[in-house]
Amino acid sequence: MIWIVSILIAISLILSSVFINFAPSFHNIIEKDFQRKARNNAVLSGLQYGNLLLRAGTIDPTASDISKRRRKITDTLVKKNGAQLKQVDTTITFSRVTASTPECNISVDVDIK
User: Fold this and answer.
1) What is the 3-state secondary structure (H, E, C) of 7-35?
2) Nearest to 88 by CA among 77, 99, 96
3) How many C-beta atoms lie closer than 10 Å to residue 96's C-beta?
4) What pTM does this model have?
5) Cα–Cα 20 to 30 A to 89, which of 4, 74, 77, 102?
6) Is 102 helix (H, G, I), strand (E, B) or coil?
7) What residue numbers bound the domain in which 49 lies?
8) How many CA atoms lie within 13 A of 42 on its CB side?
9) Element (H or E) spanning 87, and its range?
């Protein structure tokens, strides 16, 4: 009888040690998933904002100076209580439109700090 109890205790200790060892990696997995979602949302937001800039005519895609074809947006990721978590810098760049290349491509670079 006592050997059954000791075996059960040993198994439960082994299982609990395995779960305790994996606990820090769960936090990293959640953090990476949060950053992935934030990056995807920033890219989609940048593409929508870039499309809006083009339709509104507030940016000149024919300009030869790249600074006139680039916009930078800075956002912050916050918790529910208002504490700042991370800063998200989104850079929207428009390709130059010329007579030989009439299409304008929008590229979005996201940097999470």
Assistant:
1) HHHHHHHHHHHHHHHHHHHHHHHHHHHHH
2) 77
3) 16
4) 0.67
5) 102
6) coil
7) 2-112
8) 24
9) strand 84-94
